[in-house]
Design brief:
The chain has helices spanning 44-52, 74-84, 100-111, 119-129, 145-157, 175-192, 203-206, and strands at 2-12, 16-28, 33-37, 59-64, 67-68, 85-88, 163-167, 195-200, 211-214, 219-222. The protein is α/β, with parallel strands linked by helices. It has one domain: Rossmann fold (3-Layer(aba) Sandwich). β1 and β2 form a beta hairpin. α2 packs across α3 (100-111), α3 packs across α4 (119-129) and α5 packs parallel to α6 (175-192). The termini are far apart. The model has no long low-confidence stretch (mean pLDDT 92). The protein binds adenosine-5'-diphosphate (ADP) and magnesium ion. Magnesium ion binds next to α1.
């Protein structure tokens, strides 16, 4: 279960304070699939960063399975994140100097959740499911946008995370690829009873979800 309790995240610069996220309570149960919606600048990316522990809140608490992530020491948090969170970044963040298979093997070695001798086979199996088994030796720049997005999704689910966070994973895709990506994420989350939280402003993607969580426009104030 994910609990976001009275969380606020402020960014400060010389001229102003921006309250990017201000949430009283958000609770998502295991197996729930939620669309995170709001206009550009409403704090979707910030909230996903907070939940993954990549950023800490200015005030408030984020609790995953009874563990408060802001209380964790940094080193524990990195290991916890690798094991617990699957993140599809808005900018994908595939490692350009590694081929597709190595990108996946690196992600598995960080988390150390899949036994070593099974890793190659598991990566091949997932790549096969997204019709990319012939691209394992290619580098990210040799793949189309849709193909890279599929690799990013495979990388996000490869360690069987309890929480899958996807930041506008379909934004740069055509409708067919967008629905394919969403189908993969939802199917994986269902099979492993994981939480799925997908940020989007695509109406057709929103329509696929039973639960929608909306963020308001951010507040700006003079600091
Ligand atoms: P979204 O993903 O919904 O577009 P973001 O979380 O990226 O929204 O941004 C929310 C607000 O916080 C915006 O007003 C944005 O300008 C501001 N913001 C985001 N990152 C930073 C930062 N590193 N420093 C200052 N302001 C930021
Ligand atoms: Mg964003």
């Amino acid at each position: 279960m994910l609990e976001v309790k009275q969380v606020r995240k402020e960014y400060h610069d010389v001229l102003q304070t921006v309250t990017a996220v201000d949430i009283d309570s958000l609770i998502i149960k295991d197996g729930e699939q939620v669309a995170l919606v709001g206009p550009s600048g409403s704090g979707k990316t910030t909230l996903l960063h907070l939940i993954s522990g990549l950023m800490t809140p200015t005030v408030g608490e984020i609790i995953v399975d009874d563990i408060s992530i802001s209380d964790m020491p940094e080193t524990c948090r990195d290991i916890w994140r690798a094991k617990t969170i699957g993140y599809v970044f808005q900018k994908l963040n595939l490692l350009g100097s590694l081929n597709i298979l190595d990108n996946l093997l690196v992600a598995m070695s960080f988390a150390n959740s899949i036994p070593k001798r099974e890793r190659q086979q598991w990566a091949s199996q997932l790549l096969d499911q997204v019709n990319l088994s012939h691209k394992t030796a290619k580098f990210p720049h040799q793949l189309s946008m849709g193909e890279q997005q599929r690799v990013a999704v495979v990388r996000a689910i490869i360690n069987k995370p309890q929480l899958i966070l996807a930041d506008e994973p379909t934004a740069s895709l055509d409708q067919d690829n967008a629905l394919l990506i969403l189908k993969m994420l939802r199917q994986f989350a269902r099979e492993s009873n994981s939480i799925l939280l997908v940020s989007t402003h695509d109406q057709q993607i929103m329509n696929e979800f039973e639960r929608i969580y909306s963020l308001r426009q951010v507040k700006k104030g003079v600091s």
